[in-house]
Protein: Transmembrane efflux protein
Organism: Colletotrichum higginsianum
Amino acid sequence: MFPLKLFVMFRRYSVLLVVLFVSGMNFHAMSALLPQGFLYMFTTDGIQIGTLSLPNTLMIGFTGVLAPLIAHKVGHIKWQLVIGMAFQAVFIGASAGTVYPNHKFAYAFVPAIGVPMFVWVTILSYAIASLHVPHSNLGVAMGLLGTFRSGGGAVGNALFNTIFQEKFREFAGEEVTNAAVSNGLNPADLGLIIPAAIQYNMGNPRALLNVPGITPEIQEALRVA
């Protein structure tokens, strides 16, 4: 079913499976995590979240149109693939610098350069494979590229979302704890206060009502934290 000769073509095919797996990990995970970041850090307004997500969405569309138009004119397809992966790594990594301290527009635009490189890399990978794989195995080869791309996305979603949720609870817990104690709430109630403050910040206005000693001023302080 899977011809061995495909996998021994390392530089001409197998390396593309690795490239798409890694690129898919980043793209699919970031596509889900970027809006969550806007929700947790900047606003609970769905319209604003959608607006702030537009740079990434528009760049994905622009890259998908531009890549087929100019890639063959630029030439050096394999170097374009390397540069695309490098851009993805650099700008997704640089987006971490926009998170703390929180820079809303930097968080909107910096990942919008790195995340869409997945589209460029995908188009180039299919082009490279189609030029090297024997026609009798072309269908299987293209299907495997799509499988590895989606498989990387599944792994990336599971892995990065778990890391994101754990780190968010850790960082939010520290800030909420400081705000709660400094505003006179009982430290013994932190187990109730921290998850309630997270829910309040995500748009549930009644989440903090069961916290002993809560006031509108303290609610606002916890929201800011």
